[in-house]
Design brief:
By secondary structure, this protein is an alpha+beta fold. The chain is built from 6 helices and 11 strands. The strands form 3 sheets. Strands 1, 2, 3, 4, 8, 9 and 10 form a 7-stranded mixed beta sheet that branches. A hairpin with a 2-residue loop joins strand 2 and strand 3. The longest helix is centred in the C-terminal third of the chain and has 14 residues. The radius of gyration is 16 Å and the shape is globular. About 40% of the residues are buried.
């Protein structure tokens, strides 16, 4: 936890234009949240450095059974922050997202998000419900080794999507599917 707290400090102090947002969120999927506040416009944030299966995505378990891995990834995040899966209700707990440079192709800010001192992005990778999104990890070099190490451990331990077969989310969005889907 100390290492995570130091990374938060490092991120916020090494970026001259460091910004963050804190509040309750609505989950859009396993790697995207929307801060909804009465005093400001809604702010959608894509979790930095990770990619979770899409909500409609299906994977194969270790025994070969199909399951809704995209929903499972979203449910995992919902459980961490006290949100109700499948509803547009706000989370019970506040989270803080520290923005990193850049934005998504949808114009969304990208952030490293925390529940207290828990790095939610990293927890999704550790639990095997997200893969490290290598394409963007270079934006925050300090986090890259942690994300890659967490993914390797989840893969070795067969956690989450690593228990069986799946299509990487970025390939699934381009139309690639497992056999029989």
């Amino acid at each position: 936890m100390i290492r995570t707290a130091l990374i938060v400090l490092l991120i916020t102090t090494t970026q001259a234009d460091a910004e963050s947002i804190t509040g309750k969120v609505i989950l859009l999927d396993g790697d995207t949240v929307t801060f909804s506040r009465a005093d400001a416009p809604d702010q959608t944030v894509r979790l930095f450095g990770i990619d979770t299966p899409e909500r409609a995505q299906r994977c194969l378990s270790g025994s070969g059974e199909q399951y809704a891995c995209g929903s499972k990834a979203t449910k995992f995040l919902a459980g961490l922050i006290g949100a109700q899966f499948g509803s547009r209700s706000l989370s019970k707990r506040d989270i803080t997202c520290h923005f990193v440079p850049g934005q998504t192709s949808y114009g969304r800010k990208i952030g490293v998000c925390y529940l207290d001192t828990i790095n939610l992005n990293l927890e999704l990778v550790r639990a095997g419900w997200a893969v490290a999104y290598r394409r963007y990890l270079d934006l925050v070099q300090e986090l890259k080794p942690m994300f890659l190490d967490a993914e390797l451990k989840a893969r070795r331990d067969g956690c989450g999507i690593w228990q069986g077969q799946f299509i990487y989310p970025w390939r699934w969005r381009k139309g690639q599917r497992l056999k029989g889907q």
